[in-house]
Amino acid sequence: MPATQAKVVKTVPKHGYAKTLAAQPVGASAQLVIVEADLTRGLHNFSVVGLADKAVDEARDRVSAAIRHSGYKSPKQQNKRIVISLSPADLKKEGSHYDLALALAYLVAAGEAEPLAESALLIGELALDGTLRAVKGVLPQVLAAKRKKIKTIYVPPGNAKEALLADDVAIYAPNSLSELLQHLKGERPLPRLVRDRRMTAPPPALDLCDVKGQESAKRALEIAAAGRHNIVFYGPPGTGKTMLARALAGILPPLTDDDMLEVTAIHSTAGLLADGEAVYWPPFRAPHHSLSHVAMVGGGAFPRAGEVTLAHKGVLFLDEFPEFESRALEALRQPLEDHIVTVSRARATITFPADCMIVAAMNPADTLSNDARVAMRAAQKQARRISRPIVDRLDLWIEVPLVPHDTLAKLSTGEPSTRVRERVVAARARVEKRTGKRGATNAALTSRQLDERRQRGPHERRRAPQPLAPLIPPHDARRTNYRRPRRRRRGYPRLRPRSFAISPPRPLRV
After folding, report:
1. Structural domain boundaries enclosing 136
2. Which runs of E-coded beta strand occur in 338-395?
3. d(Cα 383, Cα 235) in Å, to the nearest integer?
4. Which of 185, 217, 234 corresponds to the end of one domain?
5. Which of the two ends of the chain, N or C, has the fewest CB atoms closer than 10 A to its terminal CB?
6. Is residue 167 part of a domain?
């Protein structure tokens, strides 16, 4: 009897499984998220698990419509139980940028699409017709993928400029879900995008030459810009305090590459990028004095960045300084001292960067009233609004006096901001050379560094007695014409080289 051949039975898997990669912005950075899809036979059910918010949960309808309009069977057209899992499960998932990762995970699990040849990050919101829409927070997600050695990233065309800021990664920008699927099948390969390294022009700012008079205040503004010192302008209304503060943006040097990536990532998460352009210049934030302490330093159930973080590596301008809520001003203590903000809530604790210059403008208390009691109450009220610790953390206090109209008419235009910026750049370069640290400024010098500088010989001290010297040519006699502050404060060890011949206004003596 001939041996019978064994019958080979081909088993068909009862379920499919696939996973893709997405990311969740957290504070000023991001965390990678694994998107898993599991398909099993059974009554139709389409669920998303993993602490997803409403926008992620609604992705089921967007993804189903996009897949159907791309020429594939929609999840809602199949009698299967579909589970999409987002892990880590204890991380809150927010935003519509998960759509592309969810759609591809489902299609691969259903056998409708080719799996990714290597790990790749997928970012993008899907329209109902399958086209990709731009989302916020792309750059921190790309940087998080780069840190994990993931070299391939797919983003919407509207986010391509932003994603290309990260080096050593391959960026692809399909216009739709169908284009991505054709690329994965090898039918229509997508071109790898190349970064345009041209820097954008400086943001429009008031030119210093438009501010007539107030030469001492202009000089103090230049000193503050060179050393990144916090500065307060005080004087009667109409003297140009706000104009001086807004002119500061025009004399600051551009951001370094590392700072540019950090600041752009912060603004991307906040949805403040214009057309995906990088932030090459220090940001300038000018919130209204009615903002709350949460808006100042950040907060919420899942903390978001506040004004001090949005002004990171730039300027935070506080006009009508004493009119700000006391809690908002007191919340500035940690940012001014540590250059970070730690926001703790029941569900999350996040640390935001907050290294910014504080520029404030204020009118002095009405101490010129004929009634001495009214004048005293006005001074005491203003002193109570700004606490001593906050006063100690503000380095330069500059009086901006009223200039008569007749005098203003006779004054000529001053130096343009471009020329002042050149001196500021040169001053910072000299500080970097002296300290041997890139990006170093006088405001960041430690007490030990200051002590080392004071221990130099008399001739050397004469040539560079304090950090104002970088703004003065090497052989200029003005190098010895600055005197130390007349007042000791809490932060005196770090203020010694900062403010010279400048003291806080009398109404703030508390």
Report:
1. 15-185
2. 340-344, 349-353, 357-362
3. 15
4. 185
5. N
6. yes
Q: Is residue 59 part of a domain?
A: yes
* Alpha-carbon distances of 61 from 122, 128, 262, 367, 400, rounded to whole Å: 19, 8, 35, 65, 60
Same domain, 141 and 243: no
Asked whether residue 225 falls in the same domain as residue 356, the answer is yes
Per-residue pLDDT 10s for the chain (510 aa) are 444 444 433 333 434 899 999 999 998 899 999 999 999 988 889 999 999 999 999 999 999 999 999 999 888 878 889 999 999 999 999 999 999 999 999 999 999 988 887 789 999 999 999 999 999 999 999 999 999 999 999 999 999 999 999 999 999 999 999 999 999 999 999 999 998 877 666 777 788 988 888 889 999 999 999 999 999 998 888 888 999 999 999 999 999 999 999 999 999 999 998 777 889 999 999 999 999 999 999 988 778 899 999 999 999 999 999 999 999 999 999 999 999 999 887 777 899 999 999 999 998 776 555 666 766 777 777 777 888 889 888 989 998 988 888 777 777 778 899 999 999 999 999 888 888 888 788 887 776 766 666 555 444 443 333 444 444 444 444 443 333 333 334 444 444 444 333 334 443 332
* Distance between CA atoms of residues 217 and 220, nearest Å: 5
> Is 195 part of any domain?
no
> Is residue 447 a contact partner of residue 493, using CB atoms and an 8 Å limit?
yes
Phi, psi of 181 (to 5 degrees): -65, -40
**CA dist., res. 466 & res. 459, Å (int):** 13
- What kind and span of H or E run contains 493? helix 492-495
Q: Are residues 234 and 94 in the same domain?
A: no
SS (H, E, C) 198-254: CCCCCCCCCCHHHCCCCHHHHHHHHHHHHHCCCEEEECCCCCCHHHHHHHHHHCCCC
For CA atoms 507, 216, 284, 428, give the dihedral sign: negative
Assign residue 266 the CATH number of its domain.
3.40.50.300
Q: Is residue 7 part of a domain?
A: no
Burial class, 415, CB count within 10 angstroms (exposed 0-12 / middle 13-18 / buried 19+): middle
